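Supplementary Note 2. Why include the ligand at all?

Several targets in our set were suspected to adopt different conformations when bound, so apo predictions alone were not considered sufficient. For every target with a known small-molecule partner we therefore ran a joint prediction. The input for S-adenosylmethionine is given below.
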Amino acid sequence: MLYKVSLVSLSDVTRPRNPASIPPLQLAVTAALDASSADRDVARAAAARHGLPFAPRRGRSLAAVAEQAGAEALLVLSPRRSALFVDGAEHPWRAGMAALRVKRLLSGERVTVDGFLDAAGLRPGDALLDATLGMGMDALVAAAAVGAGGRVVGVEASRALAALAAEGLARCELEAARRVEVVHGDAAALLGSLPARSFDVVVFDPMFRYGRAAASGFDLVRRLADPRPLAPETLARARQVARRWVVVKDGTPGWDLIRLGLQPIPSARGAKKMYARVEAEAG
Ligand SMILES: C[S@@+](CC[C@H](N)C(=O)[O-])C[C@H]1O[C@@H](n2cnc3c(N)ncnc32)[C@H](O)[C@@H]1O
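The joint prediction is reproduced in token form.
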């Protein structure tokens, strides 16, 4: 198993400031109960990479490890699994529906609509900035769409979600997962530090403020996510950083798109998500 975690190279992308809007969550890294000493070394190295403390497992329950480490959450790593222990439950990272979407894309199946891919309009070799990475599901699908010559950078404001996604993607069997570079930080700060026209496409999928019932796996994101809506000035900056266009996702009926003055792309009847595409600023 290759433990390559793509944390973005800082030569061309400046690491953004930590987001101020999320209350800090005391997070530590530990290993699975049955970890070998090599597995423990891998978990320890991951902790160092994410700038997090390593809490030895020593056969204890996750609750006991967290309590002794003074941690509110634990990133639990094993050779094939990355999970977050928070509020007394373990939440594994899974490619889930994204794996199915990648499979459909790679097999050329066009019957099922993928609203994200249609809106993003990605081409082989593209560089995509996912400004709201979350669990990295859309980023993983995008990485398959841009192919081996392409690049996907995902920025996530929550340290816990960024670390979970980075380690989950590093353990994901899909080849496209190797192409997702994870950055922990604030998208607005990152966009401010990037040169104009440095990515083909920039996408935003902010938390839906008017969202419906959560799909499975979404509760963890809701618990840890940065809830701020997309600011008009961040969208304006993204239009400078993009060479082609910026895509914004919203939940139906698209109140945030209306707030931002964006025209939704017509979607299938009953669709729960809406997309708008804004041209890059000419320059
Ligand atoms: C709806 S989720 C994104 C889900 C993602 N598209 C996926 O497919 O897994 C929104 C995520 O964006 C993050 N976020 C919101 N505002 C952000 C910002 N300014 N900078 C970085 N991440 C942000 C939240 O913390 C949350 O994890």
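The pocket of S-adenosylmethionine is lined by residues 132, 134-138, 155-158, 161, 186-188, 205-207, 221, 225-226, 228 (CB under 6 Å). DSSP finds ten helices and ten strands in the chain. Comparable summaries for the other entries are listed in the accompanying table.
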